[in-house]
Amino acid sequence: MYNILIISPLLFALIVLMGGVKFKNILIIFFVGVLSILSLLNMFFATTFVSNLSHMYHKIFILIDTLLLLYFLAQGIIKKNHLVSGFAIVQILLYSVVLSLSPTLLSNDILVDNISSVMYLVINIVGGIIIIYAIEYIKSEEFSEFKKNAFIAILFLFLSVMNFIVSTNNIEIFFMLFELTTLCSFILIGYRGDKTSSENALKALWMNQIGGVAILIALIFSIHNYNTIYFDMLITNINELYLLPIVFLAIAGFVKGASIPFEKWLLGAMVAPTPVSAILHSATMVKIAPYLMLKLAPAMSGFVSVTITLIGTFVFFSASLLALSKDYFKEILGLSTIALLALMMSLAAIATEEAIMACLILIVFHAVSKALLFLQAGILEKSFHLKYVNDINGLINHSPLVVFFIIIGFASLTLPPFGAFAAKFMAIESIAKEIVNNPLYSLALIFVALGSVFLTLLYFKVVTKLFAKDVDHKEKLHVKIPKLYTFSSYMLLALLFIGVYVSFDIELLSALEIIVPLVLIAVIPMLFAIFVFKKAHRVKEYHCGEKDEVKLNMYYFDIPQKYKQLINVIAISSILILIAGVIL
């Protein structure tokens, strides 16, 4: 099944790219349906599957890798970006070293397990729905017909690469696919071709090249010390006294997951067409980070586990705090993605059964919720020409449906009975249990608790703005939303509620754990109003006969630059401590 999931999107991409196809939109929707059905069949009927690829495939992969690195080098030279060309040279040198080594401890190139099956669902169903949305979105872009078709084709290529990356057990092949996702993101972020897009695309390129360098270093240590290039053999034979391969692979995860201090590449991706942001944040690219951590989880223990957990929870806390100071809607969504990805990686590093389950649940629900929210961000930009939260006063009067989708999107990340709430609940429980083994986990628990509060405050702040209305604003104009926008949004909404049904079916949370938070949300504000505001002495302002004007604005938590720099310093220092701790 895995090979069909890899090859099918490639064929679909070629068909779309050729153009001149009648009923193109229907055909693309059909392609998405095929991928969704295949991923569901794999989930329900497939078992763990292993396979080896022929020597010819390995030669082809080496050729692809070499061409990729040379392309990156050429881009660095052409665009006069020394970081891109410098990292490309380093990668070429390291890759040459990897190829010169000959590991003898062999295993299977392909390993499809339960985690792979979950990732197939996220990649193909959520990613496919975003492609349906992209059909309508790309129509209004000032591109040639070929470039519009190429955009959809690259999205299908992205799904193919992602399906392959979650199927491979070979770290060399994983490196090639890692760099292919970097290539896809580089092309898509710079797709509009303007100066800002090109600069941010190059930033995404060189930052992700750091992850590629980390994988190559991990490969060299793995071959030198464990004589293997396979994930399963590395994990099986891992020695707690020599965990450098695991650490460098984890660093590659931090880069791909845009953890602080690597967050700028993902935030810079906001200049791309909205389907790019949606697919990067939900179904592809950044999801490599928690997947890679889950792959490494059996080897996580002691110092490495604690340190990665602390780094992840610190990033969760910091990104949540930084999001409170932002007004650009997509940037708010981006920082919350960075925060939640860091939490996923922390849970994978804890490596207990409950923590891994929480990580998987968070991966799935975050993908659906964030896709839904980014799709609405695209609608706000295209249909209402709105990018900033402070400008969305009274959106409820113009498009109640978009407001409904935004509210559900934020609620699904925050409130019961949605899976993201359950996953955070399980995360707190998992971390709390580890405090007995190491008191440092108490710091991680504080980070998670505070980060969760910040994110909840952020979501409620944005939702409140949707209902706000200036007193002098009387116009009530309903804007018609294109059918493919609403269709894709309804599909994601259906996935959310299917997830809720499954959560009830497997008893993810008890009835008490669902009811109590909802009751508290309703009761606490009422009690506050009764016992605090009741005593307030209300007086009206005197305006000296001038007209009374009311305008509702949002309060932003201004974070001084020195504190932002401090966050970066702490994050970089933590990664260096992780490396030094393993070496020493």
TrEMBL record:
The UniProt record lists the NADH:quinone oxidoreductase/Mrp antiporter transmembrane domain at 170-433
UniProt membrane topology term: Multi-pass membrane protein
Residues crossing the lipid bilayer are 6-21, 28-50, 56-74, 86-106, 118-138, 150-167, 173-192, 204-221, 241-258, 265-283, 303-325, 332-349, 355-380, 401-428, 440-463, 484-502, 514-533, 566-583
Q: Which UniProt keywords apply?
A: Membrane, Transmembrane, Transmembrane helix
Query: What is its subcellular localisation?
Result: Endomembrane system; Membrane
Q: Which GO terms describe its cellular component?
A: endomembrane system; membrane
Which residues are in coiled coils? Answer: none
Protein name, as recorded? Pesticidal protein Cry5Ba
Q: Which organism is it from?
A: Candidatus Sulfurimonas baltica
